[in-house]
Amino acid sequence: MDTQSDKPATSAWTWADQISTYRFWGILVFFFASTLSLSALTAFLIIYLEGAFGLPASKSAILLSILAIGGLLGFYIAWIAARSKTKSWLILFGMLQLFGGLLLTVPGLASISWVRVSGAFMVGLATGAITLAVPSILAGGRGGMGAFVVVFGMMIFFSRLGELLNYATLGALWDTVGNIALPVVITTFMLLGLIFLLPVKSTLFQAAPPERGYSLPPSDRHPFLVALLCFVPFYWLYWLYRAHGEVASIAPTRSILSPTGAVLACLFVPLITPIVLVSLVDDLNQPARELGKPAFKNAWAVFIGGLIFFPLAAGFVQYDLNKTLKGSLGL
After folding, report:
1. Which residues, at least 6 apart from 5, have a Cβ–Cβ distance to it below 8 Å?
2. Whole-Å CA distances, 264 to 51, 171, 302
3. How far apart are CA 195 and CA 302, in angstroms?
4. 173 and 236 both lie in a single domain
5. End-of-domain residue from the set 197, 231, 261
6. Residues 187 and 285 in one domain
7. Helix axes 259-268, 273-290, angle to 10 degrees
8. What pLDDT, in 10s, does the model give residues 275-316?
9. Residues 97-108: what's their mean pLDDT?
10. pLDDT at position 77, please?
11. pLDDT confidence of 4, banded at 50, 70, 90?
């Protein structure tokens, strides 16, 4: 007896599908906001409690230990959230982190010992769950190892960027307005994260990816001219937009970003730029590989160019685009 369901399987999302939708960016901003709030809290909590309530550093440090214990237990509710795969859990985690942060920092509440302990545990539980739930939700698109590396790499990038910016910014604000800076900052971060999360579709990546039929008429540009123009402010973003739209017209595929998705990804996460460029070259060279012919440009050359000198890599991609446009494959 065939026990398999007759219901057709949901199409897997490619990493390009994910990054080309708002739901990805909304979840990523939420994750970024949670990371910023946590790093601000852990970096300044001891100083805050000592200045506001005269709490010894030894007792404040215990709260950080409780926070860490809560983070470990967050594994379990992250597992529950991963099974249901709805954004309601993320909203719940965000609210829990926000509420716990307020219990730890609002003067009328944080002066009470058991309230502080409860707040530390809530923050740890929520941030531990968010740290585990967000990657599992993004990986739920079943886009394979490549999708996981790209998406998780972007999360790590935002986490490290947040840590770099957070300490100096909050420190300067602290010197200006005093202890009140900490509750204001962590509350602002979490509220912004929740605001960006709310418009995300409740199905997340469980429904089939949306169709991406947008394309642009291709143009024959000289690769050297493209490389030179990339020194003009913002031209490189215009070229990225055009290149993705034109490749979608010549060789449509879901393995490359939408034009808007490409601009957003490379603008806000520069480390992904070489991967984005390689995806264009791979798509343009696919017909050649199918015919057993050599590729126009080696993907490694484009990748290295994207790492060290974007104009060179852009010229390489434009060369491939021109060759494909001219029908040099003899099709």
Report:
1. none
2. 41, 30, 20
3. 38
4. no
5. 197
6. no
7. 140
8. 888 888 888 877 666 555 555 567 788 888 888 889 999 998
9. 91
10. 84
11. very low
Which range of residues forms the domain containing residue 41?
A: 15-197
pLDDT at 165 over 80: no
Residue 143 domain-assigned?
A: yes
Is the model's pLDDT at 7 over the cut of 60? no
Question: Is 179 in the same domain as 271?
Answer: no
Instruction: Write the CB contacts of 157 (distance below 8 Å, at least 6 apart in sequence).
Output: 269, 271
Return the pLDDT at 229.
Answer: 93
**CA distance linking residue 310 with residue 318, whole number of Å:** 12
Pair of tokens at residue 140: 């739920």
Low-confidence winner among 114-118, 134-138, 288-292 (lowest mean pLDDT): 288-292
Query: By C-alpha distance, which of 229, 313, 300 is closest to 273?
Result: 313
State whether 65 and 161 are in the same domain. yes
79 shares a domain with 139: yes
Closest CA to 81 of 129, 28, 35, 33: 129
Q: For the whole model, what pTM was predicted?
A: 0.77
Domain count, the chain: 2
Shared-domain flag, residues 152 and 20: yes
Q: Tokens 């949306």 correspond to what residue? A: 210
